[in-house]
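Q: Could you fold this chain for me?
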Amino acid sequence: MPKPPLPPHVIEMLSRPNPAVIATLRGDGSPVTVATWYAWDDGRILVNMDAERRRLAYMKADPRVSLTALDSDNWYTHVSVQGRVARFENDIDHEGIDRLSLLYTGKPYPDRVRRRVNAWIEIETWFAWGEAG
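A: Sure. Below is the predicted structure, expressed as structure tokens.
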């Protein structure tokens, strides 16, 4: 599988609000996948979670993750990245979740009460299929 940097056409695809699934690892090593919003962030992937989500605990225990983004117009075209969560940051002012919500819905995130956490994924390998391949 190729290593970064990603080619411009793959970056362009990852810069759009595509449907995506992220995989994390439980303590016993079994994978867990969940749909997620993401954003391309200058060579990294930004994701954001409710502070009480199990996947956040999984990421903190084992930072290895994989994220697959499916082209919203053609799901046969997709990009998968594998890497590690390199940084966690409390999203105190909801800036991270608002960034994602604005990208995906055009509106700020509605829940302003629950605590949120940003996580940045450093890409180690990637693979593209379909028109992105």
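A (continued): The chain has a mean pLDDT of 97.
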